[in-house]
């Protein structure tokens, strides 16, 4: 859900976010995105991201595409190249003729301290203790933290069991998003995501980006990859370490509404 905080002020405390995001008593959403005026002259807007649990976070790839659609539809800009401030740095968005949006997601972070992830050194694969068992995973920062697990068949992946255990694992001091990825070919993967602060969602753009970075680190993916998520598909382009990663996909309006205060939800 995207709010126009340019024409109006909104104070989003955790309880307000939880009430808005509630699937039965609220509007229902995975994230609440707040558009505000930019504080620096080289950006068009500021973009803030709140998870369904009310936590404010640094990145939302799918939200960035929705944000681009929103500001143009709301008449806040007619630009096709939009630069926005986020808590994790500026993002560049490009709106195409067919309505799809490319987001420059910046340079993926692989240094454990930048993710943040507790490990002595960067690696393509880490081994973590999980209860009586252990698990192999990759850890990637996209402005928010991601753990990536390779599975044989994404349909049967233990998303609801392993997802919350890894989200709260002490190796991720700021918790983490968790992706379960089935590599179909060097150019395609299927992905399900357990999101920090939201649970399993139908699609997570930043997790799709992180999955491609992980798969490339394992030597299983190439530069251009199509990621199939339960809610749709994304095209990811990443030339490799130290380079910017770009994500392209659609954004669609579900409905418009007018905020009348918390009493109305
Ligand atoms: N749950 C994420 C934030 C939202 C990510 C989003 N769904 C996306 O598309 O990137 C977090 O806590 O980092």
From TrEMBL:
The keyword Isomerase applies. Keywords: Amino-acid biosynthesis, Cytoplasm, Isomerase, Lysine biosynthesis. GO terms for molecular function: diaminopimelate epimerase activity. It is found in: Cytoplasm. It holds the Pfam family DAP_epimerase. GO terms for biological process: lysine biosynthetic process via diaminopimelate. Its EC number is 5.1.1.7. Gene3D superfamilies: Diaminopimelate Epimerase, Chain A, domain 1 (3.10.310.10). Catalyzes the stereoinversion of LL-2,6-diaminopimelate (L,L-DAP) to meso-diaminopimelate (meso-DAP), a precursor of L-lysine and an essential component of the bacterial peptidoglycan. This is Diaminopimelate epimerase. It comes from Acidithiobacillus caldus (strain ATCC 51756 / DSM 8584 / KU).
């Amino acid at each position: 859900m995207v709010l126009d905080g340019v024409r109006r002020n909104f104070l989003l405390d955790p309880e307000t976010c939880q009430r808005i995001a509630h699937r039965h008593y609220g509007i229902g959403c995975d994230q609440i995105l707040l558009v505000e005026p930019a504080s620096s002259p080289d950006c068009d807007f500021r973009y803030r991201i709140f998870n369904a649990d009310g936590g404010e976070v640094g990145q939302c790839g799918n939200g960035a595409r929705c944000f681009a659609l929103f500001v143009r539809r709301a008449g806040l800009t007619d630009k096709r190249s939009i630069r926005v401030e986020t808590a994790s740095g500026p993002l560049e968005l490009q709106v195409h003729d067919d309505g799809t949006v490319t987001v420059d997601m910046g340079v993926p972070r692989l240094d454990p301290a930048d993710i943040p992830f507790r490990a002595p050194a960067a690696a393509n694969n880490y081994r973590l203790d999980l209860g009586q068992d252990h698990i192999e995973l990759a850890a990637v920062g996209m402005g928010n933290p991601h753990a990536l697990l390779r599975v044989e068949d994404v349909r049967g992946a233990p998303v609801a069991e392993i997802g919350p255990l890894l989200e709260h694992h002490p190796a991720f001091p700021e918790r983490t998003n968790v992706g379960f990825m089935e590599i179909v070919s060097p150019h395609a993967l299927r992905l399900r995501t357990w999101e920090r602060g939201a649970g399993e969602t139908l699609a997570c753009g930043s997790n799709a980006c992180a999955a491609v970075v992980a798969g490339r680190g394992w030597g299983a993916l190439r530069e251009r990859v199509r990621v199939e998520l339960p809610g749709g598909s994304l095209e990811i382009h990443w030339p490799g370490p130290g380079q910017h990663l770009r994500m392209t996909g659609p954004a669609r309006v579900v409905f418009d509404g007018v905020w009348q205060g918390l009493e109305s939800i």
